[in-house]
Design a protein that fits this description.
- This protein is mainly alpha-helical.
- It has 12 helices and 5 strands.
- It is elongated.
């Protein structure tokens, strides 16, 4: 993926060269997620203390250190950037290109957490986040990561159902050509494009739909000058997923 910037939020290009906007999480949501994770973290430490502190103070110190520093790293690397607190608040940690965070990035952003915590409970981290255009704390800046809002995935069934109103393409000639020339991979690509359409800038969405629609207009020899590229794409998607003949 290649990263590009605009004035409001980072935008990344998927392997299909479709631009997707990342929405940085606000301080309120991040603070709530942090409170939840801190409570869980302290709870685990309390359980560890109850189990081993009396038997081996040294072992307790080691396990407490592992829990304190390993909690965030474990969930960031092994659970797609979502700790329990972030999952509850609909947040995720990714790298600046929208890719999953790596172990090295997680290690760096959590080591820098010590500085973000200063002088009292993430005071410096909050200040830096307010000044940074993408609301990153120091750990995110150094590790090249972002905490973003997760938007609910669009239900493919709903997307296909919405596309049914663009069904003027259901002519015998178009249906024959579709069955003969459009395979499973292209069908899934069309579904992916429609699912991502709402996340695109209006101009990018128009350009993408016109390009894809123009390709199928030529390939399937569709002669309908009043049918827009997006309606053509959605109409084809509806046919491909609902035609059972």
């Amino acid at each position: 993926m290649n990263a590009v910037e605009d004035r409001s939020a980072p935008v990344v290009l998927t392997p299909e060269h479709v631009p997707i906007r990342l929405f940085p999480a606000g301080l309120g949501a991040r603070f709530l997620a942090l409170m939840i994770d801190t409570a869980i973290n302290w709870g685990v430490c309390a359980v560890v203390a109850t189990m081993v502190a009396a038997l081996s103070p040294g072992l307790f110190m080691i396990l407490n250190f592992i829990v304190q520093w390993g909690y965030h790293m474990y969930f960031e690397v092994r659970h797609q950037g979502r700790s329990p607190g972030k999952r509850f608040c609909g947040l995720r940690v990714v790298d600046s290109r929208g890719l999953p965070i790596t172990f090295q990035q997680s290690f760096v952003r959590n080591i820098i957490r010590v500085l973000d915590f200063a002088p009292a409970f993430y005071g410096l981290g909050a200040l830096v986040s307010l000044m940074d255009r993408h609301r990153r704390r120091l750990g995110d800046i150094v590790a090249d990561t972002l905490v973003i809002e997760e938007h609910r995935a669009v239900d493919p069934t709903r997307a296909i159902a919405d596309a049914r109103r663009f069904n003027s393409l259901q002519t015998p000639r178009v249906l024959r050509r579709l069955r003969k020339q459009v395979g499973l991979e292209e069908r899934e690509l069309l579904l992916s494009i429609v699912l991502r359409a709402d996340a695109l800038d209006p101009q990018a969405r128009f350009d993408l739909m016109e390009e894809v629609g123009g390709y199928y207009r030529r390939t399937l020899e569709i002669d309908d000058p009043h049918l827009s590229g997006e309606n053509l794409v959605r109409g084809l998607l509806s046919i491909l997923y609902t035609d059972r003949s």
